[in-house]
Amino acid sequence: MHLNFSQQMKMSQQMKLAPRMIQSMEILQMSVMALQEKIDQELEENVVLEQIDSKQKDVHDGDPDSPEAGREIEQREIVVDNDHNNEADFERLLEMSAEWPEDNITSGGKPSSNRIDEFSDRQHDLLGNLQASPQSLQDYLLEQFHYFELDTEERDFGEFLVQNLDENGRLQGTLPEIIQVYGQQVDYAVADRVLNMIQRLDPPGVGARNLQECLLLQVMDEMPLRDVVVTLITDHLENISQNRLPLIERTTGYSLDTIKAALEQIRTLEPFPGRRFQSHISQNVSPDVRVEQGEDGKWRVTLINDYTPELRISRKYVRMLQDNPDQQTKEYIRKKMEAAKWLIEAIEQRHNTLRKVSQAIVDHQSDFLENGPEAIVPLKMQQIADDVGVHVTTISRAVDGKWMETPRGIYPLRRFFGGGTTTAEGDEVAWQKIRLKLQEVIDNEDKHNPLSDDALVKEMATHGYTLARRTITKYRKAMNIPSSRQRKEY
Predict the structure, then answer these.
(1) Which helix (H) or strand (E) holds 34?
(2) Of 157, 263, 420, 469, which is most buried, counting CB atoms within 10 Å of its CB?
(3) Is 92 buried (19+), middle (13-18) or exposed (0-12) by CB count in 10 A?
(4) Per DSSP, what are the bridge partners of residue 420?
C-alpha cells in the first residue's frame, strides 16, 4: 500500500452566525414567560445590568429635562463596533455618566427594594396557582391492599403488582410474564390470589390485563341484563366498536332493542379506571400581544409588557469604568457592558418584530376578529414575511409559542396561519372553515342513514366546497368523527 502526503488549498463559502445574531434569534423565539426567566437570570449573572424601577420611571417621565428623558434615545444610538474594540460606544457611556445624578446610581449586583417586591409578588402568584399534589392511584390502592391479612410473600408481590400498574390501572402482560419480571420465587397460586385481591379494590376494574377483563370486573350481579352484557363483552367487543348490531342480533339471537339496552349498561362502565387519578396540570397562558378595534374601525396591536421589566446599564459601573485605573477591571466591565447592551437591543428588536408581525397577521385576518373562526382566510407565513420584509424563518420564530389576546378570546399566533382551497365560485377558503362546515353537515345528517364519505363529497359540493373523497376522509379522521357505519343509529 502506497501512502502520499500532500498539502492542498481549497476555497469554500460558509455562513457562520455571530453570537449576537444567535442571541437575537433565541430571544425572538422565547415566549413572554421564558423571556422573563431569561431576564431574571441575566440580572443575577451580569452585575452591570439593572432593572428600571417603576417609581424612578414615573418621576423621570414627568420631567422632560431630566437626564433620564434622553437615556432611551442615547442608548439606541449605541452600536457594536468590534473592529475598534467598541471604543466609541464606551466613550459615550462615560460621557453619559457625568450627566446622571449621584442619587440615581444603583448597584447591578444588589436588587432594589421594588424589584424584590415585584419578584416576591410573582412568586406568591405562582404558589397561589399551584395545585395540591393529588393522591396517586398506587397510593390509593396500597392503602386498601394493606387492610387484607397478608403474609410477607403476598404483601411484597402485591406491592410489586400495584407499583407496576399503568396510568389506566391495568397490568401490561400475563401473570406468568409478570412473575418472571418480579425476579423472586413466588408460587403461581399465590400470585393469582394476590391479583384477585387487587382486582377487588376500588376503583372497579383496576388490575385488569386487557379491556375485556376490565369491563367484566365491573359487571355486578344486580346489573340489568347482566347475562346479555357479559355475552357482549366476552364475544362481541369488536362488533360493538364497529357498530355491527345486526350481526350481533343474528349471532346471539337477542333482539335489537335488548342489545341496545345492554349497550347502555356497558357505556356506564369505565374502560380506564385509573384515569381519574391522572394529574392534568393546566398551563397558564400569558398573551404577548393584544388586539383592539379603534374608533375608526381598524384593528391595532399593542405589546403586553407587564412581565418584561425595562433594563439599563448600571450607572455605578459606568463610573467605575471611568475612574478605575486598573486595566483588567476595565476590560471586565466592558465585556459585561457589551453583553448587557446586546441583551437590551435584542429585547427591543424582539418587541419591534413581534409588533410588526402581529399587526400584519391582524391586517389579513380582520374578518376572523369581526365574524369568528368561520371567517378565517388562508394565510401563509411567506405572505407575512413579504409584508414585514424579513425571512420566513423569522416569522416562524416570532410566532412560535406566542399568544394574542382578542375580543373573541386568546389564540396562539400560529392559529391564524393555514392553507386552503378554491370554491366553485373561485374564492379562496381556509381549511379551518371547511372543517367547521364538515362538522355542521355531519351534525345535521339523518343518524339512521348517515352520509358516507362519497355522500359527504356531494353534500359539501352543494355548499360550494369541491373536495376529493380522500380529503373528506382525511379531515373526518383528524376530527375524530367515526365512519358512517359507526355513526348509524338503529
Answers:
(1) helix 32-45
(2) 157
(3) middle
(4) 430
**pTM confidence score:** 0.56
Type of residue found at 389: G
DSSP letter for 173, please: S
Name the strand (E) or helix (H) holding 430. Answer: strand 428-430
* Tens of pLDDT, residues 188-231: 999 999 999 999 999 999 999 999 999 999 999 999 899 999 99
Residue length, the chain?
A: 490
183: exposed, middle or buried (C-beta count within 10 Å: 0-12, 13-18, 19+)?
Answer: exposed
- In 21-53, which positions are buried (b, 16+ CB within 10 angstroms) versus exposed (e)? eebbbebbbbebbebbebbbebbeebbbbbbbb
Per-residue pLDDT reduced to its tens digit, 60-106: 444 444 444 444 433 333 344 444 444 444 444 444 444 444 333 33
Long-range contacts of 308-311 (CB under 8 A, 24+ apart): 308/32, 308/35, 308/36, 308/39, 308/347, 309/39, 309/51, 309/52, 309/115, 309/118, 310/51, 310/52, 310/57, 311/39, 311/43, 311/49, 311/50, 311/51, 311/52, 311/340, 311/343, 311/344, 311/347
Helices 137-145 and 188-198: crossing angle in degrees, nearest 10, is: 110
The DSSP symbol for 164 reads: T
